[in-house]
Design a protein that fits this description.
GO molecular function: glycosyltransferase activity
CATH topology of the largest domain: Spore Coat Polysaccharide Biosynthesis Protein SpsA, Chain A
Distance between the termini: 47 Å
Enzyme class: transferase
Radius of gyration: 19 Å
Helix content: 40-55%
Number of domains: 2
Mean pLDDT: 92
Organism: Microcella daejeonensis
Pathway: Cell wall biogenesis; cell wall polysaccharide biosynthesis
Strand content: 15-25%
Shape: globular
Family: Belongs to the glycosyltransferase 2 family.
């Protein structure tokens, strides 16, 4: 009897100025019990030698070097488009350059996703001390149907509505159907918008046996004081609630109210409320007055621009 070929998984790593961590991430990917067929490293115009690290990492590592920093959102859009264009994947495994997967992370992530019939799966994310990282907790799926909940439980996981780019497995078919992340988000809420767009009407699962270590400098949640970067949280959340089709109306009310509560907690805990207030005002203004540009426009002129145009053409209008 001929065994079925193993599904083809391509890892996509977005890198920016963390060469030592990138070395660790690439080593961990090479040590997987189920190795990715290829590893695409998108270097976001790093000023250290991150690109050189990726270029010297071996034949399975492919470097996509961008001449300008496009943020996590642009980096993942570029990496997904490149992987679809050149590697014929069945699955795409997305992570930042500070995400270190344990040896069985991919094997257990893919097995759980396939057992649950899910198109998106997220790993359990821990910090360096082994505690769960509050920044990367998947959102459980509200109002989940009984059959979906029970199938997820039988697979050893939990049905989810969203997950983060810190170890997100997504089927290539879903990417071709939905399109790419919205590069204009730059950072913050890009994975929330993209995963909820992928999962609108589809199944997602949290796979607790797939474990990755998120090596952030400190163990913080999403309401930790971000300083001036709070601009992106506010602008992008408004963009999402106003323009994205990733959430149903009731979900927008629920998640919008949750965001307001989190903003209040962030302000209360802030060490520099003047900086935070300025970021909030600018984000609020731009979130109402502007709309995100198409990803193909944002990434125009970069080496991946043709692949991005094809991927977003096939997937529609990026959820807008």
């Amino acid at each position: 009897m001929t065994s079925m070929p193993r599904p083809r998984t391509i890892a996509v790593v977005v890198a920016y100025n963390r060469r030592d961590l990138l070395i660790e991430v690439l080593q961990a990917l090479g040590d997987q019990t189920e190795a990715p067929a290829a590893i695409v490293v998108v270097d976001n115009a790093s000023t250290d030698d991150s690109a050189a690290v990726a270029a010297a990492a071996g034949p399975r590592v492919e470097l996509v070097r961008l001449e300008r920093n496009t943020g996590g959102a642009g980096g993942f859009a570029a990496g997904l488009a490149h992987a679809l264009e050149h590697h014929q994947p069945d699955w795409l495994w997305l992570m930042d350059d500070d995400t270190v997967p344990t040896p069985t992370a991919l094997e257990r992530l893919r097995a759980t996703a396939e057992s649950a019939g899910a198109s998106v799966a997220g790993s359990r994310v821990i910090w360096t001390d082994g505690t769960d990282h509050p920044m990367n907790t998947p959102r459980r799926k509200p109002f989940v149907r009984r059959d979906e909940r029970e199938r997820a439980e039988r697979a050893g996981g939990t049905a989810i509505r969203s997950t983060s780019f810190v170890s997100m497995l997504v089927s290539a078919a879903a990417v071709r159907r939905v399109g790419l992340p919205l590069a204009d988000y730059f950072i913050w809420n890009d994975d929330f918008e993209y995963s909820t767009r992928l999962l609108r009407g589809e199944r997602g699962i949290f796979a607790p046996e797939s474990i990755v270590v998120h090596k952030t400098r400190v163990l913080g949640s999403t309401d930790a004081d971000p300083g001036a970067r709070f601009y992106y949280e506010v602008r992008n959340k408004l963009w999402m609630l106003r323009r994205s089709h990733s959430l149903h109306r009731l979900e927008k009310v629920l998640y919008g109210a949750s965001s307001v509560r989190r903003w209040i907690r962030t302000a209360v805990r802030s060490e520099d409320r003047a900086v935070l207030g300025d970021a909030f005002r600018r984000g609020w203004r731009d979130g109402w007055r502007t709309d995100p540009r198409p990803t193909a426009v944002v990434l125009d002129g970069l080496p991946v621009s043709a692949a991005v145009k094809r991927a977003d053409r096939d997937g529609g209008e990026g959820g807008r």
